[in-house]
Design goal:
The structure is a single chain. By secondary structure, this protein is an alpha/beta fold. The protein has 2 domains: 191 residues, 3-Layer(aba) Sandwich (Rossmann fold), CATH 3.40.50.720; 36 residues, no CATH class. A 7-stranded parallel β-sheet has the order 3-2-1-4-5-6-7, sandwiched between helices. Strand 5, helix 5 and strand 6 form a beta-alpha-beta unit. The longest helix is centred in the middle third of the chain and has 29 residues. It is globular.
């Protein structure tokens, strides 16, 4: 129905994205699930019923961002909230970073976010809606050995703050959400790729940075989704231009 609020989620078939899609549909919204893996997006959308649609998109291509957002709006007739959750991880010493790897991370984490916002902004002005950009604790503090990723997520944080200033007069709110490690397929791939053949030890090293000590655990996608849901609601009206941590205190300081 045309009066039913609609969210569009890039990276919508991933851990955070799929959990957010489920939360918004549960809350009575329609959701456009945008993802490079269109088949996986279709699986997520099918599980959510007629309130969700899957749209294939390569966010590293600006024209694909615009096409995906246009398809979502054509389906729903409106757009009230956009979540930019598509992202990739990279780590390793700067000596080993190739131009291709640098470009890959920036194309998804920065260019993809920027042009997804650009594609959505006209419709969000019309609905006086909002955007939430998924950054990271690595956008607020340095993560040793992850220079490219940190640079990309720092860019996302300042993009959110700048757009909040630019779009405030139009009634559009923009925030960055900065999760710590989230137990998701992305984190599992991270451990498998960079864990030196021992993903469990990799996870243990990550958890060793948390202030909870032996009680430390990773954030669950559903916990991030609940935060994202709140930010799209009228009760979050004063919140814009913020970089909001959800990381068990990981970014509070050095242990």
């Amino acid at each position: 129905m045309a009066d039913q609020p609609t969210a569009l989620i890039t990276g919508g078939a991933g851990g955070i994205g799929a959990a957010a899609a489920d939360r918004f549909v549960t809350g009575g919204w329609r959701v456009a699930i945008v993802d490079r893996d269109e088949q996986r997006a279709k699986t997520v959308a099918h599980s959510l019923g007629s309130s969700a649609i899957a749209i294939g998109c390569d966010v590293s291509r600006p024209e694909s961002c615009h096409e995906a957002v246009a398809a979502g709006i054509a389906w729903a007739g409106r757009l009230d909230h956009m979540i930019a959750a598509a992202g990739v991880w990279s780590e390793g010493p700067i000596d080993d970073v190739t131009e291709a790897e640098f470009d890959r991370v920036m194309a998804v984490n920065v260019k993809g976010v920027f042009f997804s916002c650009q594609a959505a902004v006209s419709s969000l002005r019309a609905s006086r809606g909002s955007m939430t950009l998924i950054a990271s604790d690595a956008g607020l503090q340095a993560n040793k050995g992850a220079a490219v990723y940190c640079a990309s997520k720092g860019a996302v944080v300042l993009l959110a703050k700048t757009l909040a200033l630019d779009l405030g007069p139009d009634g559009v709110r923009v925030n960055a959400v900065c999760p710590g490690d989230v137990m998701s397929p992305m984190l599992e791939r991270q451990a498998e790729t960079y864990g030196g053949g021992d993903p469990a030890a990799y996870f243990e090293t990550l958890l060793g940075k948390y202030p909870q000590g032996s009680n430390a655990r990773f954030t669950q996608p559903g916990e991030v989704a609940e935060f994202l849901w709140f930010l799209a609601q009228p009760g979050a009206a004063p919140i814009t231009g913020a970089a909001l941590s959800i990381d068990f205190g990981l970014s509070s300081g050095i242990l």
